[in-house]
């Protein structure tokens, strides 16, 4: 196949079966075939660096190697392992009902191949998974785990929904299995709404709050609702790592989690309830779980209560309004509260704020927007980055709210095949190599053209890692990478217009 906007032939060393759509090219997978990402071997001989490329011209995590040289070319970029920044928590996506609904529409062999794309050794090896506590806007219907029985303060009628058993639990278990020998999967729970009887308007739509006083029975009961969720999932052999107290305040089912609400609820109810439960006592508690534009004020207000601040582990952030607030606010918050981790827990293209609506098949710009966000945020103390739905249909659903968006993998529900988009490969440039425990380090860059940016890190086993993104239309950037204090070892790579390049080499 000839690639869009280019006379070059689509490269497919890893077996990508390209299919062209008006917006770009996807790699097609079915029950018997899916392209693998070539693994990085444990040992890289000194004198050599491994390179992975994804590009508009058609590279999709294509692996090659390059000889290191004693002399640089024109520009040098210096990796400085003596300046160590944050530890990586991981990368991942969300086990939404919609992800499971779309997986269920495929035959078993195809489902298995799709799950391997995200969690297997030949895929992007995600290490984080977000699990909605009951329904999201990407569910078949709205539900919570304790509705229809009146005011059930003791959670006697709490029960997981059929939706959990059909759409989430089987795939979460499969993901845990696939990641077992590979560092494990950290799961994060997040509710969209409390049970409806706890809300001031008794309905599921946004705008409401929890009923009654901050120290009243609704608040205590809502904390027990969280505990019941984690206990019920543990019964299914699914342990969790973290929890955010409330997904973003939006137009669908929600409550408005002001900083005052958050700090009182966390301090007086959620933290004590979790710590009293065997299933939940070690969970990391995160606040905000909403747009970067709210981050500075939310954090300042939350931090006015020192006791609440002491039981908060991290702050989770979504990407949808990033253009309204510079990434430097992340560094400001980090500098004020260095002990709190910052984690991006939701992002997608195709939402009303991102320029497109719904699915844009093969769109390379959508991939670039992921790479730009990850590099910029990780260079401002963010510890990890999570996508939203892992699989949607060609319309961008299922979504009862008809809030259709895009996803790195799109399922052709009636054809037993799925498409891997550029966003999928972009995630892999980071998730496959920056495992939990990797460290972002300083990378001193030469003056680079606009829209060229880079990230430097040390992998868990000590390998050196640099990813460079070039979003220019024409400029082809060539950089010689070297490590501070290591003489006469340069890795020279070119990063042509609209390409993403990851370079990995052994520590000297
Ligand atoms: C799956 O895709 C491969 C590669 O395009 C093709 O050769 C094979 O026939 C397809 N299998 C099915 C069952 O359609
Ligand atoms: C590709 O996606 C970007 C947003 O990620 C959007 O601005 C652009 O219009 C899309 N291109 C096409 C051809 O739809
Ligand atoms: C980019 O520059 C390098 C080094 O000069 C060259 O080898 C490569 O062919 C160029 N790539 C493109 C796409 O122009």
UniProtKB/TrEMBL annotation:
> Would you identify the family this protein belongs to, as annotated?
Belongs to the glycosyl hydrolase 30 family.
User: Where does the Glycosyl hydrolase family 30 TIM-barrel domain lie?
Assistant: 88-434
Q: Which domain of life is it from?
A: Eukaryota
Q: What is this protein called?
A: Glucosylceramidase
Q: What are the protein's UniProt keywords?
A: Glycosidase, Hydrolase, Lipid metabolism, Signal, Sphingolipid metabolism
Q: Which EC class is this protein assigned?
A: hydrolase
The EC code for this enzyme is: 3.2.1.45
Q: Which reaction does it catalyse?
A: a beta-D-glucosylceramide + H2O = an N-acyl-sphingoid base + D-glucose; an N-acyl-1-beta-D-glucosyl-15-methylhexadecasphing-4-enine + H2O = an N-acyl-15-methylhexadecasphing-4-enine + D-glucose; a beta-D-glucosyl-(1<->1')-N-acylsphing-4-enine + H2O = an N-acylsphing-4-enine + D-glucose
Q: Biological process (GO) annotations? A: alcohol metabolic process; autophagy; glucosylceramide catabolic process; lysosome organization; negative regulation of macromolecule metabolic process; protein catabolic process; regulation of macroautophagy; regulation of membrane potential
User: What pathway is this protein a component of?
Assistant: Sphingolipid metabolism; Lipid metabolism; sphingolipid metabolism
Q: Which GO terms describe its cellular component?
A: lysosome; vacuolar membrane
The molecular function GO annotations come to:
glucosylceramidase activity; hexosyltransferase activity; signaling receptor binding
